[in-house]
Write a structure and sequence with these properties.
The complex is a heterodimer of chains A (about 375) and B (about 190). Chain A is an alpha+beta fold. Helix content of chain A is about 30%, strand content about 30%. With about 190 residues, chain B is mainly α. The chains are: A alpha+beta (about 375), B mainly alpha (about 190).
């Protein structure tokens, strides 16, 4: 079939369905139908109300489902390229800006006549490179990254994304055995769960989840930080249990932080979630732009700028009146650093700024040095704060 | 071809996200139906369609007209389907159905034609008002009037009215698309 004939037949078939064809066109269509036995059957299928309705039911998704699928495509195309561009851009920028920054620094130090300790030259500490370790229920461990791999159990991995949508059906009793995805320091990963929920996992984070969601709810367990884009399903609520906080989701986007030694926080970007303590306090409803924080045995809610909490997902650090200790904790996770303080009092100094996660750590520390009165000494992976 | 399409392809070739979305909305449903001719599983079908669009994006600078975009999408989907089947055959050691190259390319065009005609007819469904569409869809999924009414917080009468309107409109616009029995009763 030539492409001209193809377009002609398509046009005739559609107009036939609408009752718009004339006799000559009907004859033309008839000839095509008789040209091959399969074509008559195919034509009847095309003109059958049952088949059309079955196709609409199965293949014409709801706007919400379509949006979810589209977001996944964006993640793998437009957004992926943007992320790569940020990386390339910062590399170029570093080439041009570094000498200038160093120059300004030297001048400033001289001017002040200060006793600034020279930053020692050292091997560059590179920003985190995405990677993850998958721990299967039997304890088997698999290292994952950019490479495309098809895993036993039907999961697919590629471009720093692990996908469970193709996972094999497991027997009922397997529902309690959970998979674990561990993101080491310096890593970042995307996980697509069996229900199409997308989870962005930050450095030093662990998420436990089943390969398939059975039963009345979809429950996952988080340690660390993750951004959730949950597939709506009113009959099966999505629940994140994190450091003594239970977040119940009604289809939405939000960020949960639950690092050890830090308070557990949930920031809602879009939609609706309910939050309670794991011990079972009363559920508090969060609205977009609000943050829930666990304090003692209760939950405290406040209005926040959500971008400050979710920017990591887009490759940025956003610090807003944040103290040096908190900042160093976040940098340490991403750049895999050991941090020591020569002087405890500097821990409480505050800093504001938006920095890209894909620059080298010294550049970030230098920017901080210029606005806060701290100094950093870097040796390999160790940073001493003075 | 519709007006403004050349512009969409031009914008898409330059990396415009909205133009990309227009193409997605235009072809995703048809590609799903097309893929279902090769594989059964809905999750697999969804992945095949997503892969086709990702591949299309990577090649975006090469396209000048929509026919080649369309051909590329369908071919990418087909190759993915066949790879999947081949893979499965090796894995499960099936020994049947060796497709002949010529025969396959012929049925490829027929399958694509069928998917495209479906896409065109589905447009009539897309023209329905949103509430009407939702009711119609729920009804196709086997929900009763009462269940739909409860889910959408509307009365059973309103459900019937929406269904009636949908049915009437579909019949009016697709005069020769016939059913042996009327699926949507109560009209």
């Amino acid at each position: 079939m030539q492409s001209q004939e193809y377009e002609r037949i398509k046009d005739l078939a559609v107009r036939h369905a609408q009752g718009l064809t004339d006799e000559a066109e009907e004859r033309e269509l008839q000839a095509w139908r008789e040209s091959k036995p399969e074509r008559e059957a195919m034509f009847r299928r095309m003109m059958s109300r049952q088949q059309l309705e079955e196709n609409i039911r199965r293949f014409a998704k709801t706007p919400e489902e379509e949006e979810q699928a589209w977001q996944q495509i964006l993640e793998r195309t437009v957004r992926r390229e943007k992320r790569l561009r940020v990386r390339q851009w910062t590399r170029v920028a570093a080439m041009f800006l570094l000498p200038v920054a160093a120059g300004v620094l030297a001048w400033w130090a001289l001017e002040r006549g200060s006793q600034r300790t020279e930053i020692q030259t050292m091997a560059q500490t590179l920003p985190g490179k995405a990677g993850a370790i998958l721990v299967l229920p039997q304890g088997e461990q698999v290292a994952l990254g950019e490479k495309a791999v098809a895993l036993a159990g039907g999961m697919q991995n590629r471009d720093y994304t692990l996908n469970y949508r193709t996972a094999d059906e497991t027997p009922e009793k397997a529902e309690t055995t959970l998979h674990l995805l561990r993101i080491p320091r310096g890593g970042e990963y995307t996980l697509v769960l069996a229900d199409s929920t997308v989870v962005h996992l930050n450095s030093e984070t662990e998420l436990r989840y089943p390969a398939h969601f059975r039963g009345k709810e979809r429950k996952v367990y988080l340690r660390g930080e993750a951004y959730f884009d949950v597939m709506p399903n009113a009959e099966k609520p999505f629940i994140v249990e994190a450091g003594g906080m239970d977040v119940r989701v009604y289809g939405t986007e939000f960020n949960v932080t639950a690092y050890e030694g830090e308070s557990v926080r949930t920031v809602l970007v879009e939609g609706k979630v309910g939050v309670k303590t794991t011990e079972g306090s009363e559920e508090v409803q969060l609205h977009p732009g609000q943050m829930a924080e666990r304090e003692g045995n209760g939950i405290v809610v406040q209005e926040v700028d959500t971008y400050t909490y979710t920017a990591w997902k887009d490759g940025k650090f956003v610090f807003e009146e944040e103290n040096i200790e908190r900042i160093m904790e976040r940098l340490a996770r991403w750049y895999n650093l050991n941090v020591f303080y020569a002087n405890e009092s500097v821990k409480n100094q505050l800093f504001n700024g938006v920095l890209t996660r894909f620059t080298e750590v010294e550049d970030i520390l230098r920017v901080i040095e210029q606005t806060a009165t701290v100094e950093f000494e870097i040796k390999g992976n160790t940073v001493i704060v003075k | 071809m519709e007006k403004g399409d050349e512009d969409i392809i031009k914008r898409f070739a330059q990396g415009d996200e909205r133009a990309f979305r227009v193409l997605y909305d235009r072809y995703a449903a048809g590609l799903r139906y097309f893929a279902s001719k090769y594989v059964d599983d809905d999750a697999e079908i969804e992945d095949i369609v997503q892969d086709a669009f990702v591949a299309l994006w990577e090649k975006r600078a090469d396209f000048r007209e929509e026919t080649s975009v369309k051909a590329y999408l369908y071919q990418a989907a087909r190759n993915d389907c066949l790879n999947l089947k081949r893979h499965r055959k090796v894995r499960e050691a099936y020994a049947e159905q060796v497709m002949q190259a010529g025969e396959e390319s012929e049925s490829f065009l027929d399958r694509m034609l069928e998917a495209e005609v479906y896409t065109a007819l589905k447009e009539v469904f897309e023209e329905l008002p949103p509430a009407c569409k939702t009711v119609y869809r729920m009804s196709l999924n086997g929900m009763s009037h009462e269940e739909i009414a409860e889910e959408l917080h509307i009365t059973v009468n309103t459900v019937k009215k929406h269904k009636n309107n949908a049915n009437h409109y579909m019949k009016e616009r697709l005069k020769r698309v016939l059913s042996l029995f009327i699926l949507l009763s109560g009209c």
